[in-house]
């Protein structure tokens, strides 16, 4: 969860800084707005890329951990591992919901909704 928050915070900071820089630059409003949209689209694309990397990594860890859990001799340990993964998914869902509630960007809201949906699917698999 810490890595996700750090990534989100970094991208948000970059977006805010870029937007402020563009707004205060001595350019026509239409050029500034276009530049803001271009930067915004770039950050959304970058966020999607980072999410896909994180998702792939987590999906592999979930599969690996699930396989390890299935191979464990004691059911108690398997249950503990699976409960830990469910907790991680719940934390991710909560973080995405918080991020979605705090942004007013429709693209980001949509992206976070996709993240939530994917995390809920992972949770169901567990």
How are the secondary structure elements laid out?
Blueprint: H1 2-23, H2 29-71, H3 75-102, H4 106-125
What can you tell me about this protein's structure?
With 126 residues, this protein is mostly helical. It is built from 4 helices and no strands. The longest helix is centred in the middle third of the chain and has 43 residues, at 29-71. The radius of gyration is 19 Å and the shape is elongated. 9% of the residues are buried. The model has no long low-confidence stretch (mean pLDDT 78).
Cα distance, first to last residue?
A: 18 Å
Q: Helices and strands: which structural class?
A: mainly alpha
- Mean pLDDT over the full residue set: 78
Estimated helix fraction: over 70%
Question: DSSP helix count?
Answer: 4
Biggest β-sheet strands, sense, barrel? none
| Rg computed from alpha carbons, rounded to a whole number of angstroms | 19 Å
Characterize the overall form.
Answer: elongated
Query: H/E element string?
Result: HHHH
Oligomerization state of this entry? single chain
* Strand proportion: under 5%
pLDDT under 50 segments (min length 5)? none
Please give the number of β-strands.
0
